[in-house]
Amino acid sequence: MNLKKSQIVLILVAALVLGFAGAYAGVQLAQPDEPNTKSLADAGDENTKGSSNTETSDLPANLDKITQAYDLIKQNYLEDVEDKQLVEGAIEGMLATLEDPHTSYMDVETVDQFNNQIESSFEGIGAEVSMTNGMVTIVAPIKDSPAEKVGLRPNDQVVTVDGESLEGLNLNEAVAKIRGEKGSEVVLEIQRAGVTEPFKVTITRDEIPVETVYSSTETIDGKQTGILEVTNFSENTAKEFEEQLNALEKEGIEGLVIDVRGNPGGLLNVVEEMLALFVPEDMPYIQIEDGNGEKEEYHSQLGEKKGYPISVLINEGSASASEILAVAMKELGYDVVGETSYGKGTVQQAVPLGDGSSIKLTTYKWLSPKGEWINEKGVEPTVEAKQPDYYYTYPIEAEEPFVYDHTDEGIANMQVMLSGLGYDTGRTDGYFSKETEKAVEDFQADNELDATGEVDQETAGLIETQVIEKIRDNEDDQQMGTALDELYQ
Amino acid sequence: MNLKKSQIVLILVAALVLGFAGAYAGVQLAQPDEPNTKSLADAGDENTKGSSNTETSDLPANLDKITQAYDLIKQNYLEDVEDKQLVEGAIEGMLATLEDPHTSYMDVETVDQFNNQIESSFEGIGAEVSMTNGMVTIVAPIKDSPAEKVGLRPNDQVVTVDGESLEGLNLNEAVAKIRGEKGSEVVLEIQRAGVTEPFKVTITRDEIPVETVYSSTETIDGKQTGILEVTNFSENTAKEFEEQLNALEKEGIEGLVIDVRGNPGGLLNVVEEMLALFVPEDMPYIQIEDGNGEKEEYHSQLGEKKGYPISVLINEGSASASEILAVAMKELGYDVVGETSYGKGTVQQAVPLGDGSSIKLTTYKWLSPKGEWINEKGVEPTVEAKQPDYYYTYPIEAEEPFVYDHTDEGIANMQVMLSGLGYDTGRTDGYFSKETEKAVEDFQADNELDATGEVDQETAGLIETQVIEKIRDNEDDQQMGTALDELYQ
Q1: Mean of pLDDT values over B337-343
Q2: Which of A231, A247, B412, B475 is most buried by a 10 A CB count?
Q3: Is A95 on the interface with B (CB under 8 A)?
Q4: A355 contacts: CB under 8 Å, gap ≥ 6
Q5: DSSP 8-state symbol, B380
């Protein structure tokens, strides 16, 4: 059952990203000045269009004030200022007043990254990275990628790229340095837990296919059961999903689990195509509401529901298009298993400004088939299911080693991790007891470390690595277990 | 010697200032498109002038991009947005790109506040604040203000105002919340360095008279000595200063201390008028440098130096115009006593945008007579002098009473306070020893509290009050003592 790798890492690590940072959660519609009907279907190619708002509307007189401020700064500020800096500052300043976390200005580089996300491949080394404790950290190499081939591992910290330090860069800036054209080489300096000195690896970048649908089967109570994990809603996702669903049905599955845990969303039209495979025409699969409160329902052409039971797996990392899927299936009568989802009920459009930059702007709300707006609430599961405690731990921060008789919330976190690995720490409340010390000693002895009973950085790093590996091995995926069991209740 | 109340509290409290937001620390020149010669003299009334930049310069084509973004938001954002909001957002966004803490947009209300500062009174709590690392931070409470009486100190961070978070607000918006009519109450939640939990203080707003010059005399070695404390450089300060200096000279003073501790600055022309009383014509009292690196010297018409010795008192709360004064006097050969000053070497101008709002923009650097730029360095004293340790303590936060055998940084702070009040705690390193317990018991007995030897909230409150009173009584103003002694060395 190797399909669940990526989403599990999500839960452990909290905020991972596929190669970059966050724009990915957006759902797109079409051009804002077109009516929102057909446009739902061709959202995907809008990025490539030219500038949209060329007609100049009646500007209020006080736009002069912006010009006046601009002139003042250019002419009188103590230092010289670039036009581009002021123009981008003005746009970001206007967008900031909207106080909408999903609206943003995207410069040319960010638009490129955004498009990479929507497309079915990108060029790079093929590793998910996150910013952890200020360090760019490998979350996981993608299967068969250059990053995997060269042996990068979860929790490896990237210290330099081609000799340049990443200190002070944000995740996007760091990723921009790691990425590059297929065939080019990049040298990463890696700090690995348990290895004293940083070491360098040379990686040849390649085209990284973004697979977003993973299919497998399980036999439950003698019934062949399909599992479709969807990690993202990008260009090819609906097509891949339909193909793999057809293949499973050909195999004769008697039930299906759709797993969108940790799936941050993607393209609106893609999830719509997928819902059209399940939601019959007599019920809308979604409603779209504009700024005036006008709602429009969207229907499939499907005759009837699938003949087999389905459940949808969600967690707090399921956002946007994942929630569109989950809430529609829930209102259609299927079980939704797991934990309450993220709660993003708005639709963004990326509108090009004509010079390669774009504004990603919130333009619509989406509502469930029955008209519910889940924004900031999320989709509640019909069957709640959590993972074992160690899935919710976080990397150990031990400036000072954790030692006997100390109390710290970081110690509690470490106790949960060790317990998850099968070492009985006696308690998991943050008090470093004698039993905890014994558990640490046992762990150290089993891993050829000095059995000091203290959790220093080396021991901490090894505990983390083993927890991540255990989560990837999927032995304890209780949520999936519940979803499978619920199918035949 | 009651003149020193405010500054001492200031020192206790650490950094200083007036009624509102940092704007006060600004030094003004004249209209930016006039040459910077005569304009130095009439900086004070520029706020009342009309719009300055009516001629439109050649705008780059990419200003269209701002218009385009504006249109897009107005036409397509999910919610309706006011023009004013977007225009102000654009201006604030442009200014933010300058990354200059002294440059800001001032809306109509803020301009009013700014003018209040220059004028002789305003209504509020009486504390200068700044935006530091994204937090609204007290620079200094004004002498005898509600902010001072309630014990606010430099570097205190304001977390909430009347329960509302200040997160995301700019300085002006935050100040607007703190200010209000005389007699009204406001609750500030304060985060103080060295204190774990934020705490709340209730402050009754008042009319804050802006008296800025305090005069007194001391007899040192039989010599009549004048002391002029200057708390701010506002409209009337130069006139008041000259009158009081004349009065002291008539009394026959043989030496003078000018005390600008905790003085955040003010109007450039005002400090210039004051320096013209001391700096002879053969040496510039200041140099002003524009964005092109062109420097201009400014000279007085004074024949010669005063016939008596002078020293200037500074601390880390002495900023801007205070530093112009201190560094000029230092380079003229006088002693500067105290601690290194704040380090603000730029000049701002408040330029009206024609609708009542203004932009406060950094337009010049000021240099010392000899051409030194003290920005981010401050003026170093020729004679270093600190206050007694208890001046640097902070209110006791004792959720749990402090008791025998415990160790805590709050206990160290309390020990310094008690020692300052004359109770020997044996040590001041944070370990609550038997001697500390005895000191607490003695303090309690002397103040008709149960002599428990434990520092509960009641005992803590009384210790604090007595420390504040002692500081206000000025018995131990070692810096002033040093400044007076240095005069006749």
Answers
A1: 96
A2: A231
A3: yes
A4: A108, B62, B65
A5: P
pLDDT band at A50 (very low <50, low <70, confident <90, very high): very low
Residues in A touching B103 (Cβ below 8 Å): 77
Q: What is the mean pLDDT of chain B?
A: 84
Q: Given pLDDT bands bounded at 50, 70 and 90, which one contains residue A415?
A: very high
Q: Give me B393's structure tokens.
A: 């303590």
Q: Report DSSP state, residue B79.
A: S
In degrees and rounded to multiples of 5, residue A412 shows phi and psi of -60, -45
**Measured CA distances, B394 to B49, B153, B159, B246, B433 (Å):** 44, 8, 17, 39, 21
Of the candidates B59, B89, B361, which has its C-beta nearest A73's C-beta? B361
Inspect the interface and report whether the beta carbons of B67 and A62 lie closer than 8 Å: no
CA gap A361, A155 in Å, rounded: 34
| 3-class state of residue B472 by DSSP | helix
**Which residues lie across from B241 on neighbouring strands?**
none
A contact test, residue of B65, B358, B373 with most A CBs within 10 A = B65
What is residue A181's DSSP assignment?
-
Contact B120, B209 (CB under 8 A): yes
pLDDT digits (tens, 9 = 90+) for A229-241: 999 999 899 999 9
Q: Are B233 and B323 in contact (CB under 8 A)?
A: no
Q: Is the pLDDT confidence value at B47 over 90?
A: no
**DSSP string spanning A363-419?**
EEEEE-TT----TTT-PPPSEE----GGGG------SSPB-TT-B-HHHHHHHHHHH
CA distance B427 to B416: 9
Please give the pLDDT value at position B60: 57
| Structural element, H or E, at residue B364 | strand B358-367
Q: Per-residue pLDDT tens for B126-147?
A: 887 877 767 888 877 887 889 9
Bridge-based pairing state of the strands B383-384 and B335-338: parallel
What are the helix and strand counts (H, E) for chain A?
A: 13, 19
pLDDT tens digits along B154-180:
778 899 999 999 988 888 788 888 988
Q: What ipTM does the predicted assembly reach? A: 0.76
pLDDT digit string (tens) for B227-240?
A: 999 988 988 899 99
Cβ contact A291:A281 at 8 Å: no
- How far, CA to CA in Å, does B323 sit from each of A147, B237, B241, B315, B333? 57, 16, 17, 10, 15
